[in-house]
Amino acid sequence: MNLATYIPPSEQDPTDLAWMREALNMGEQALANLEVPVGCVFVKDGKAIARARNRTNEWRNATLHAELEAIDHLLPNHPAPLNTITLYVTVEPCVMCASALRQIGIGRVVYGCGNDRFGGCGSVIDVNSSSRLDTHPAYIAEGGYYREEAIMLLRRFYMSTNANAPKPKGKATRVLKTDIAPLPSSSSNTPLSSRPPSTTPQLSRNPSSSTLILPSSTSTSSPEIFAGSAKIPSERSTHISSNSLEIGSMDSEKTVLSGGMSGILPIGSTIAGTPIPGPLR
Hints:
- By secondary structure, the chain is α/β, with parallel strands linked by helices.
- The protein has helices at 14-32, 56-59, 66-74, 95-103, 147-159; strands at residues 39-44, 47-53, 85-91, 108-113, 140-142, 255-256, 262-263.
- The chain is built from 5 helices and 7 strands.
Protein backbone atom coordinates (compact mmCIF):
# COMPACT_ATOMS: atom_id res chain seq x y z
CA MET A 1 0.00 0.00 0.00
CA ASN A 2 1.63 3.21 -1.19
CA LEU A 3 0.61 6.28 0.82
CA ALA A 4 3.03 8.65 -0.87
CA THR A 5 1.60 11.84 -2.38
CA TYR A 6 2.73 12.80 -5.89
CA ILE A 7 1.88 16.17 -7.38
CA PRO A 8 0.79 16.14 -11.04
CA PRO A 9 3.00 18.18 -13.38
CA SER A 10 0.16 20.63 -14.03
CA GLU A 11 0.10 21.57 -10.36
CA GLN A 12 3.84 21.80 -9.71
CA ASP A 13 4.89 25.32 -8.83
CA PRO A 14 7.85 26.84 -10.76
CA THR A 15 9.39 28.01 -7.48
CA ASP A 16 9.42 24.45 -6.16
CA LEU A 17 10.96 23.24 -9.42
CA ALA A 18 13.66 25.91 -9.24
CA TRP A 19 14.66 24.84 -5.73
CA MET A 20 14.59 21.18 -6.76
CA ARG A 21 17.20 22.02 -9.38
CA GLU A 22 19.38 23.27 -6.55
CA ALA A 23 18.93 19.92 -4.80
CA LEU A 24 19.87 18.17 -8.06
CA ASN A 25 23.06 20.24 -8.14
CA MET A 26 23.96 18.81 -4.74
CA GLY A 27 23.12 15.33 -6.02
CA GLU A 28 25.54 15.87 -8.89
CA GLN A 29 28.23 16.81 -6.37
CA ALA A 30 27.54 13.58 -4.49
CA LEU A 31 27.88 11.58 -7.70
CA ALA A 32 31.19 13.28 -8.49
CA ASN A 33 32.41 12.19 -5.04
CA LEU A 34 31.35 8.55 -5.49
CA GLU A 35 28.38 8.90 -3.14
CA VAL A 36 24.79 7.77 -3.68
CA PRO A 37 23.63 10.90 -5.52
CA VAL A 38 21.12 12.44 -3.15
CA GLY A 39 21.18 16.18 -2.49
CA CYS A 40 18.98 18.58 -0.59
CA VAL A 41 18.40 22.23 0.27
CA PHE A 42 16.42 23.77 3.14
CA VAL A 43 14.54 26.95 2.23
CA LYS A 44 12.98 29.62 4.43
CA ASP A 45 11.27 32.80 3.21
CA GLY A 46 12.59 32.28 -0.30
CA LYS A 47 16.21 31.80 0.78
CA ALA A 48 18.38 28.70 1.08
CA ILE A 49 19.54 28.35 4.67
CA ALA A 50 21.35 24.99 4.39
CA ARG A 51 22.18 22.41 1.76
CA ALA A 52 24.05 19.13 1.71
CA ARG A 53 24.72 15.87 -0.10
CA ASN A 54 25.28 12.28 0.96
CA ARG A 55 28.63 11.67 2.69
CA THR A 56 28.19 8.09 3.89
CA ASN A 57 31.07 6.65 1.86
CA GLU A 58 33.40 9.57 2.55
CA TRP A 59 33.15 9.23 6.33
CA ARG A 60 32.18 5.52 6.51
CA ASN A 61 29.11 6.65 8.46
CA ALA A 62 25.70 5.32 7.40
CA THR A 63 23.89 8.14 9.20
CA LEU A 64 25.38 10.91 7.04
CA HIS A 65 22.49 11.15 4.62
CA ALA A 66 22.05 14.51 2.91
CA GLU A 67 19.14 15.56 5.13
CA LEU A 68 20.94 14.81 8.39
CA GLU A 69 24.14 16.45 7.16
CA ALA A 70 22.21 19.66 6.45
CA ILE A 71 20.29 19.50 9.74
CA ASP A 72 23.57 19.49 11.68
CA HIS A 73 24.44 22.86 10.14
CA LEU A 74 20.89 24.18 10.28
CA LEU A 75 19.86 23.76 13.91
CA PRO A 76 22.47 26.04 15.57
CA ASN A 77 20.98 29.09 13.82
CA HIS A 78 17.44 27.80 13.30
CA PRO A 79 16.31 25.86 16.36
CA ALA A 80 13.30 23.59 16.16
CA PRO A 81 10.46 23.66 15.38
CA LEU A 82 11.14 24.39 11.73
CA ASN A 83 7.52 24.63 10.62
CA THR A 84 8.21 27.61 8.32
CA ILE A 85 10.95 25.75 6.43
CA THR A 86 10.65 23.58 3.31
CA LEU A 87 13.10 20.80 2.46
CA TYR A 88 13.80 20.01 -1.19
CA VAL A 89 15.48 16.63 -1.65
CA THR A 90 16.06 14.55 -4.77
CA VAL A 91 14.83 11.25 -3.26
CA GLU A 92 12.04 10.58 -0.76
CA PRO A 93 13.60 10.63 2.74
CA CYS A 94 14.26 7.22 4.23
CA VAL A 95 12.59 6.15 7.47
CA MET A 96 15.52 7.47 9.52
CA CYS A 97 15.54 10.89 7.87
CA ALA A 98 11.76 11.16 7.76
CA SER A 99 11.68 10.59 11.51
CA ALA A 100 14.41 13.16 12.13
CA LEU A 101 12.52 15.70 10.03
CA ARG A 102 9.37 15.12 12.04
CA GLN A 103 11.25 15.49 15.30
CA ILE A 104 12.59 18.91 14.29
CA GLY A 105 9.14 20.01 13.19
CA ILE A 106 9.83 20.56 9.47
CA GLY A 107 6.96 22.28 7.71
CA ARG A 108 7.05 20.64 4.29
CA VAL A 109 9.14 18.22 2.24
CA VAL A 110 9.32 18.26 -1.56
CA TYR A 111 11.13 15.36 -3.22
CA GLY A 112 11.92 14.01 -6.66
CA CYS A 113 11.52 10.22 -6.89
CA GLY A 114 10.13 7.71 -4.44
CA ASN A 115 12.10 5.34 -2.25
CA ASP A 116 10.35 1.98 -2.48
CA ARG A 117 12.66 0.12 -0.12
CA PHE A 118 13.31 2.66 2.65
CA GLY A 119 10.83 5.50 2.04
CA GLY A 120 9.51 7.17 5.18
CA CYS A 121 7.02 9.52 3.52
CA GLY A 122 4.50 6.98 2.33
CA SER A 123 6.26 4.59 -0.03
CA VAL A 124 7.00 2.15 2.80
CA ILE A 125 5.94 3.87 6.04
CA ASP A 126 4.12 7.17 6.44
CA VAL A 127 6.42 8.49 9.16
CA ASN A 128 5.66 12.04 8.06
CA SER A 129 1.92 11.85 8.80
CA SER A 130 1.13 8.78 10.89
CA SER A 131 -1.12 9.49 13.87
CA ARG A 132 0.76 6.81 15.80
CA LEU A 133 3.69 9.23 16.12
CA ASP A 134 1.69 11.89 17.90
CA THR A 135 4.62 13.20 19.97
CA HIS A 136 5.70 15.36 17.01
CA PRO A 137 3.61 17.30 14.48
CA ALA A 138 2.97 15.76 11.07
CA TYR A 139 4.36 17.42 7.95
CA ILE A 140 3.41 17.52 4.29
CA ALA A 141 5.53 15.45 1.89
CA GLU A 142 5.03 15.84 -1.86
CA GLY A 143 6.87 13.93 -4.59
CA GLY A 144 7.26 13.95 -8.35
CA TYR A 145 9.36 17.12 -8.86
CA TYR A 146 12.00 16.46 -11.55
CA ARG A 147 11.37 12.80 -10.80
CA GLU A 148 12.94 11.55 -14.03
CA GLU A 149 16.15 13.53 -13.46
CA ALA A 150 16.41 12.17 -9.91
CA ILE A 151 15.97 8.61 -11.16
CA MET A 152 18.57 9.01 -13.90
CA LEU A 153 21.00 10.47 -11.38
CA LEU A 154 20.67 7.32 -9.26
CA ARG A 155 20.98 5.05 -12.27
CA ARG A 156 24.23 6.69 -13.30
CA PHE A 157 25.63 5.90 -9.84
CA TYR A 158 24.55 2.27 -9.93
CA MET A 159 26.12 1.87 -13.36
CA SER A 160 29.53 2.76 -11.92
CA THR A 161 31.83 0.67 -9.75
CA ASN A 162 31.82 1.66 -6.09
CA ALA A 163 35.50 1.71 -5.17
CA ASN A 164 34.54 2.14 -1.52
CA ALA A 165 32.61 -1.14 -1.39
CA PRO A 166 34.23 -4.06 0.52
CA LYS A 167 33.96 -6.17 -2.66
CA PRO A 168 33.43 -3.89 -5.67
CA LYS A 169 31.30 -5.50 -8.36
CA GLY A 170 32.28 -5.46 -11.99
CA LYS A 171 29.64 -3.58 -14.00
CA ALA A 172 31.26 -3.33 -17.42
CA THR A 173 28.40 -5.22 -19.08
CA ARG A 174 25.59 -3.17 -17.55
CA VAL A 175 23.50 -0.97 -19.80
CA LEU A 176 22.07 2.31 -18.57
CA LYS A 177 18.29 2.16 -18.87
CA THR A 178 16.52 5.31 -19.96
CA ASP A 179 12.91 4.20 -19.65
CA ILE A 180 11.04 5.50 -16.61
CA ALA A 181 8.02 3.76 -15.06
CA PRO A 182 4.87 5.84 -14.50
CA LEU A 183 4.16 7.33 -11.11
CA PRO A 184 2.68 4.83 -8.65
CA SER A 185 -0.99 5.32 -7.92
CA SER A 186 -1.88 6.61 -4.46
CA SER A 187 -3.95 4.48 -2.12
CA SER A 188 -4.67 7.32 0.28
CA ASN A 189 -7.96 9.19 0.46
CA THR A 190 -6.35 12.19 -1.21
CA PRO A 191 -6.38 11.92 -5.03
CA LEU A 192 -3.20 12.72 -6.88
CA SER A 193 -4.74 15.85 -8.34
CA SER A 194 -5.72 17.31 -4.95
CA ARG A 195 -3.32 19.59 -3.09
CA PRO A 196 -3.08 19.42 0.72
CA PRO A 197 -2.68 22.76 2.51
CA SER A 198 0.92 23.91 2.84
CA THR A 199 2.50 25.12 6.07
CA THR A 200 4.77 27.40 4.07
CA PRO A 201 2.45 29.99 2.48
CA GLN A 202 5.33 31.94 0.93
CA LEU A 203 5.47 29.28 -1.81
CA SER A 204 2.22 29.97 -3.67
CA ARG A 205 0.99 27.67 -6.41
CA ASN A 206 0.57 28.75 -10.01
CA PRO A 207 -1.07 25.87 -11.91
CA SER A 208 -1.36 27.96 -15.06
CA SER A 209 2.41 28.11 -15.51
CA SER A 210 3.70 24.92 -17.11
CA THR A 211 6.83 25.98 -18.97
CA LEU A 212 9.09 24.16 -16.51
CA ILE A 213 7.00 21.01 -16.21
CA LEU A 214 8.36 17.67 -17.38
CA PRO A 215 5.94 15.15 -18.91
CA SER A 216 4.95 12.33 -16.60
CA SER A 217 2.17 9.84 -16.05
CA THR A 218 0.11 9.17 -12.93
CA SER A 219 -2.12 6.37 -14.12
CA THR A 220 -0.34 3.06 -13.49
CA SER A 221 0.89 1.54 -10.26
CA SER A 222 4.58 0.76 -10.59
CA PRO A 223 7.68 0.69 -8.38
CA GLU A 224 9.95 3.71 -8.15
CA ILE A 225 13.71 3.53 -8.11
CA PHE A 226 15.03 3.67 -4.57
CA ALA A 227 18.31 4.87 -3.06
CA GLY A 228 20.29 1.77 -2.24
CA SER A 229 19.30 -0.58 -5.07
CA ALA A 230 20.16 -1.10 -8.70
CA LYS A 231 16.83 -2.76 -9.59
CA ILE A 232 15.11 -0.40 -12.00
CA PRO A 233 11.64 -0.91 -13.52
CA SER A 234 11.33 -0.50 -17.26
CA GLU A 235 7.75 0.10 -18.36
CA ARG A 236 7.84 3.19 -20.53
CA SER A 237 10.35 5.31 -22.42
CA THR A 238 11.34 8.74 -21.26
CA HIS A 239 12.19 11.71 -23.41
CA ILE A 240 15.88 11.29 -22.47
CA SER A 241 17.66 9.69 -25.43
CA SER A 242 20.48 7.17 -25.19
CA ASN A 243 22.82 9.82 -26.58
CA SER A 244 21.95 12.27 -23.83
CA LEU A 245 21.82 10.41 -20.55
CA GLU A 246 23.09 12.92 -18.07
CA ILE A 247 21.27 15.73 -16.36
CA GLY A 248 21.77 18.86 -18.41
CA SER A 249 24.14 21.62 -17.51
CA MET A 250 22.89 23.72 -14.64
CA ASP A 251 25.45 26.50 -14.85
CA SER A 252 22.73 29.05 -15.59
CA GLU A 253 20.62 28.00 -12.62
CA LYS A 254 22.99 28.75 -9.77
CA THR A 255 21.84 30.54 -6.68
CA VAL A 256 21.92 34.33 -6.72
CA LEU A 257 23.98 35.53 -3.78
CA SER A 258 23.93 38.95 -2.18
CA GLY A 259 25.54 41.70 -4.23
CA GLY A 260 24.55 40.05 -7.50
CA MET A 261 27.20 37.32 -7.30
CA SER A 262 26.30 33.79 -8.32
CA GLY A 263 27.61 30.51 -7.02
CA ILE A 264 26.83 27.37 -5.04
CA LEU A 265 25.75 28.04 -1.47
CA PRO A 266 28.13 26.32 0.99
CA ILE A 267 26.75 23.87 3.52
CA GLY A 268 25.44 25.83 6.48
CA SER A 269 25.53 29.19 4.70
CA THR A 270 22.51 31.45 5.07
CA ILE A 271 23.23 33.94 2.27
CA ALA A 272 21.17 33.19 -0.78
CA GLY A 273 18.30 34.40 -2.87
CA THR A 274 15.81 32.61 -5.10
CA PRO A 275 17.32 30.45 -7.87
CA ILE A 276 17.27 31.95 -11.33
CA PRO A 277 14.20 30.54 -13.17
CA GLY A 278 14.74 28.47 -16.27
CA PRO A 279 14.21 24.89 -17.42
CA LEU A 280 16.82 22.16 -17.40
CA ARG A 281 18.50 21.89 -20.76
